[in-house]
Amino acid sequence: MSHSAPLSLHSALVVRSPFDAALLERYRRQSGEIDIHWTPTTVLMKNIENGQQCDVVIVTDPAMDQLVAQGIVDPATRKPLVISRIGFAVKQGAPHVDVSTTEQLVKTLREGRSICYSIGGASGIHFKTVLKKLGIEQEIDAKASPIPEGFTAEKLISGEADLAIQQISELLVVPGVEIIGYLPDELQKITAFSIAQFANSERKQQAAELIDIVTAANTADEYQKFGLELRN
Predict the structure, then answer these.
(1) CATH of 84-187, one of 3.40.190.10, 3.55.30.10, 3.30.450.20, 2.60.120.10
(2) What is the pTM for the complete model shown?
(3) What highest taxon heads this organism's lineage (predicted)?
């Protein structure tokens, strides 16, 4: 089925890999064109606060709660999407440093040259709280290579960092990197994401079709390939 105006999707970065790999093409084949803006949830929420409009939005659950409370999204269209975990990557071929326990992680961070995290992303915000909890925030930040937003693994390719932390699916967006492990369980933060239509969307049918496609049970394998778990 074809529609004249492209659907507008504003989404957190977390689902970019499975969407680019397969899910957006499923939508295009069934429903038509789609315009996508990929930004961290914190940046996306600021953009919405400043009046930015779209048809469908994907953000963390707390952010979606806020959009529902403000009447910006239609709560009847809200669906749970994925669960994401935070992990680490190195450049392909680099040694796989040990991040398996809190003790080993601290040792790795102290001995490493530089780690990259995203200031605007949920993973980076959490990582800062972890560093503070471990009492090494100033020490690690003094040699870190933080970015305002985007994909931290790009700093591995450029050589500016030798370790990157982010949601696993976001690390895998960048070719030429390898996942070496997750944040240890006692430090891990599992983040849940939801999808919903903007209440004032003029493309409600297209929006509903996209939501149905990306939350369908047969998408679970696509998400799993990139370290994500489809929510029931």
Answers:
(1) 3.40.190.10
(2) 0.82
(3) Bacteria
